Amino acid sequence: MARDERETLLEVHLALPDEQFHRLKFLLEEQIPAGLLLPASRPELCRILLQRFPGNSLRVTAEILRRLGRLDLIQRFQLPLEEQIPEETPQEPSRDTPKVRGDPPSGCCPGAIPAPPVNPRRLTDKDLMQIAQRLGKEWQEVGILHLGLERSRLEQIQEENPSNPVLWNFEMLREWRRRERQEATVSRLRSCLEHARLDPGILDFLQSLQED
After folding, report:
1. Do 91 and 106 contact (CB within 8 A), yes or no?
2. For position 172, what pLDDT does the model report?
3. Are residues 130 and 194 in the same domain?
4. Residues 69 and 136 in one domain
5. φ, ψ of residue 122 in degrees (nearest 5)
6. Which domain holds residue 56?
7. Are 105 and 91 in contact (CB under 8 A)?
8. Positions in the chain whose pLDDT score sits under 50
9. CA within 20 to 30 Å of 26's CA: 2, 68, 94, 121, which one?
10. Domain tally for the chain?
11. For position 11, which CATH number holds?
């Protein structure tokens, strides 16, 4: 089991571009001393995680990937998460208990906070512009840490739209939507942004879209 866990961790780390791998180590500083993390290579980080979180390293890694916006890796490697990732396909209601709006999906961890109703519709340009108008000066931090975008692409967006911060935010969100394709939904973006440092009005706005 330990060998499978180590191999999975290493494959996940190898799937991350260098910038996101460094961001992963930065976020792990909340739980592991920076002196151990900063010089660690991918294999060394696997060893540290296995030692620090025996039997739980994949769950810890999945939580960091969720904060990086890399839900695709969580799903590809079937990593465990404390909170279930919203699925695009609605789950069948129980035959014994009628499904009530707001109930947690079947298979959710016992005691988990019920997730808000999922709206599977994709975000429109108008939605993205309204979000862009609320994003502040930390837009690059949001793009890299929470949307999983590359710094080089964000710098390119900034060069293409000089002196227009709202357009920087808008094009960043459009880039995320292009990458996510059919999964660029209201619920997916809200999940990516819920731990970001931003105007609470953005999450309120996304919540209102989910409830429409």
Report:
1. yes
2. 92
3. yes
4. no
5. -80, 155
6. 5-77
7. yes
8. 1-3, 84-117, 119
9. 2
10. 2
11. 1.10.533
On whether both 202 and 131 belong to a single domain, the answer is: yes
The percent of residues in the chain predicted with pLDDT above 70, rounded, is 80
What are the residues whose beta carbons fall under 8 Å from the beta carbon of 191, sequence distance 6 or more? 66, 71, 85, 86
In this structure, the answer to whether residues 129 and 190 fall within a common structural domain is: yes
Model confidence pTM above 0.70 = no
Same domain, 67 and 137: no
CATH code, domain with 164: 1.10.533.10
How much is the pLDDT for 173?
92
137 & 204 share domain? yes
Tens-place pLDDT, residues 147-168: 888 888 898 988 888 888 889 9
To which residue do tokens 């209201």 refer? Answer: 186
Query: Contacts by 113-117 with C-beta closer than 8 Å and gap 24+?
Result: 115/83, 115/84, 115/86, 116/187, 116/190, 116/207, 116/210, 116/211, 117/210, 117/211
- Full 3-state SS string of 128-193: HHHHHCCCCCCHHHHHHHHCCCCHHHHHHHHHHCCCCHHHHHHHHHHHHHHHHHHHCEHHHHHHHH
